[in-house]
Specification:
alpha/beta, two-stranded antiparallel sheet, about 375 residues, eight-stranded parallel beta sheet
Length: about 375
């Protein structure tokens, strides 16, 4: 455990206790793997490994992507645990993942402490962890989504989430369609200021109130953790004042020594200006945020032919999508930034230097 001093309460998820209420957000492909997750867990937070094309470094990845990914789940968790010692390590698994159930079951079998799941509503998640110690947390962006998932789990599985993660409009991957984003936008050209803070704060309070009802029904504590645009101590304290039990932070950890991303990826964050952060459309699903670069400028000219399918997403037609998201993200993870999609949160432009994970944890907890 580090020497970080914090007046913030520990984050308790059932029988798991993180000394610091900081969850490191999952970032695929290859951005949050064992090095970053292990370091955050070792510093007293919760480290999260992304399973999105987690096996991209495996020699058979191109030919057998799913087998490579499932194999890498176990090896990355093992490496993270060696770094984290007794820290809490989990996985972020997207519902949109092709053969989603297999990824969850593999993570559970490997011994994951926690599974955080978004990019769709994880309606069947309790089924895949039944009888195990693995905790489960849906990602929601609205009271409506939280209501749907809590009601469904209550009715179908007679259970409630162990944790709820609320992702706001400044997150890298957005749980909002463009219409909703437009409703939340303010009159500014900058991506980092694209929503009415007070309006979304009310949404967060509504989700917290809803979750409390299910916590009471099941006689357990269900912490609510907020995410999206949380970059410094003031941001953390604002979320705590809303009633959140903790925060999930992703972007701030990219520019750390321990982050699994290559230096070229980190440098893109360091070089980014506020106006360089743009909303992009994913080939499938909801929009996201990325740093404008040569790849995005080339996309403006038209579709890029998909030459190989990596079997990453359930609802994807290679003949129709504008580009292959796996190839673009693997390029990013390998340092080929001119041909890469560089996802980021709304505050990526604030990155000024390479820090250590402990530096970031201290800044978030102490100011």
């Amino acid at each position: 455990m580090s020497t970080i001093l914090s007046q913030l309460k520990p984050l308790k998820i059932g029988d798991l206790t993180a000394k610091l209420p900081i969850i490191q957000g999952g970032m695929g492909v290859g951005i949050s793997l064992s090095s970053l997750a292990g370091a955050v867990a070792g510093a007293g937070g919760i480290g999260i490994i992304s399973t999105a094309q987690i096996g991209f470094r495996e020699p058979d990845f191109a030919e057998h992507p799913q087998e490579a990914n499932l194999r890498a789940i176990g090896s990355e968790l093992q490496k993270a645990r060696a770094i984290a010692k007794d820290g809490i390590v989990g996985f972020n698994i997207m519902v949109a993942t092709k053969n989603y159930a297999e990824y969850v079951k593999t993570a559970v079998k490997a011994g994951a402490d926690l599974i955080i799941s978004g990019a769709g509503l994880p309606v069947s998640l309790p089924e895949y962890v039944k009888g195990t110690a693995t905790k489960i947390a849906p990602i929601v962006s609205s009271v409506k989504a939280a209501t749907v998932i809590c009601r469904m789990w209550d009715r179908k599985y007679q259970t409630a989430p162990d944790l709820v993660v609320v992702e706001g409009p400044l997150a890298g991957h957005l749980g909002f369609d463009r219409e909703k984003l437009t409703e939340l936008e303010v009159d500014t050209p900058h991506a980092a200021e694209t929503f009415h803070q007070a309006e979304y704060d009310e949404e967060v309070r509504g989700i917290i109130a809803l979750v409390k009802k299910y916590a009471q029904k099941y006689g357990k504590s269900i912490p609510v953790v907020t995410a999206g645009g949380i970059y410094d101590h003031a941001d953390v304290m604002h979320q705590m004042e809303l009633g959140a039990d903790g925060v999930q932070v992703a972007t701030r950890f990219v520019t750390t020594e321990e982050c699994d991303a290559p230096m070229a990826y980190k440098q893109a964050y360091l070089d980014a200006k506020e106006e360089d952060i743009v909303i992009v459309k994913s080939p499938v699903g909801m929009p996201g945020r990325a740093i404008k670069n040569a790849f995005l400028k080339e996309l403006e000219k038209g579709r890029q032919a998909v030459t190989h399918c990596y079997q990453c997403l359930e609802h994807c037609d290679p003949a129709k999508i504008p580009y292959c998201i796996t190839q673009a993200l693997v390029n990013a993870a390998r340092g080929d930034e001119d041909h890469a999609l560089i996802f980021c949160g709304g505050n990526a432009w604030r990155a000024e230097k390479i820090e250590t994970v402990e530096d970031v944890m201290r800044a978030l907890c102490e100011g």
